[in-house]
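Render this sequence as a predicted structure.
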Amino acid sequence: MTDAPAASTFSASGEDAITRTIELNIDSSNTQNIALSDFLEIYEIERTVAAIVEGNFKRIALQFPDELLCHSVPIYRLLKSKAGEGHDIYVLADTSYGSCCVDEVAAQHVDADLIVHYGHACLSQPSRLPVVYVFGKKPIDVDDCIDQLGQCLTTQLQQDTTSNSNNRPTVLLRYDVGYSCRADVIAHRLQNELQSLNTRVLHNPLPTRLDPKTTVQSPEIFEQIGARSNEDSFTNVIIAYIGGESLNLTNILMTHSHCEVYAYDPSTKSAHLQSHRTNKLLMRRFAMVQKARDADVFGILIGTLGVTSYLPLIAHVRKLLARAQKKSYTISVGKLNPAKLANFMEIECFVLIACPENSVIDSKEFLRPIVTPFELEVALQAEGTWSGRYVLDFEKILAGDSENDIGNSTEDNGGDPDQPTFSLVTGKYRQAKRYGGNETVTEETSAALTLRNQDGALSKSADSAAALFLHSRAYQGLEAKIGEDSPSVLEQGRSGIARGYSDDHS
């Protein structure tokens, strides 16, 4: 009988990691077993094939979110068999940024000329390639939806009519893209339900295909992707949203803070007033604005490479920071997580350039605050200049539609640049650093000098925020000691693997 080898003190066999069971929380509505015949209807195979053949696209990229990758192989086979020869199809198994955005970068790796996007989508305007959207068909009880929303809206409309009979509210139907297949039916029946109150129900179908922007978008498309040019003309609007708790609903609450929002969740079959959370959401974002106001070094995070106007928006943010004499670094790290951003210790605040649905990040787990471009504009203003309006759309920020709320963000207030400002975050006065222009450092002059080498030579750090941060650290890397140590003797190194080198004597 042989004894089993003793386990090493500093290593293990790895069996526990291999046999460990991992629990996955996956939406069952997306991964339920679907008969092969149902794929034709749920994933609109015929419409997709028609778009491929009619457009004579040769290389097609299929983009799936993680929860739908299990359906990628059957969909691929159906498209391949029906499209015929001359059409190469590829599956994009991982996205560079958010799964709701079209991943044009990954599609260009296979030189694709068409992207078919499956699942939830933010419907941001693509910049390079045409996109065909397949939203899927989530189950919903239309009768219960009409009953629940009808009761909530009827009560609200009766109250509004009593207080102001001359200005009747308009109901705007918004929904998660997975329920777009039933949106027309719901809008029609909801209009009939509210007909006695003489109320309009507005609804525009979502686009199922978007091409790179060549002309000015129509108001209908603007309304669906977040700019809502038509909605702004209505002074009294009630929003009826169909879908569960999501980033889309959160963004609607913040960008329509003046509207009452009722949401119906098909999974729980319940409708509730959601706009009571708006003030709390905006207060959280205002706290982020105050932290950004105290920052002097900013990191511009690239959160999308496929949305039109993302490059002009990056240039716009750089221009704002430069005029405010703030230091900025442009960073592309892919999908965000606290560990990645913690590597940039010298950066005091991040500005995220992403689609409207992924722009608002709850940065509790992150070391530094993360704000949107609009929040940055507010932070660079004099205190108390935010009216509460919230903008996420790229085009509106670039077009200056928010100018009425925040004024010209690049104007100088004419005050003393060396005057300290009061921080609402720390409750103390602070002296801002200034980068660029004539005054690069407003702290004591010794902070602008750093050691160049071991001989005691000094160099001026100028506009380098990283150099100033390195100078403030106790540990600044290994000492070079050039010429002080004698050369080492060349020796034979170890061989083997880390858990057991060949020259170990244990």
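Summary. The chain has a mean pLDDT of 79. Residues 31 and 70 are 7 Å apart (CA to CA).
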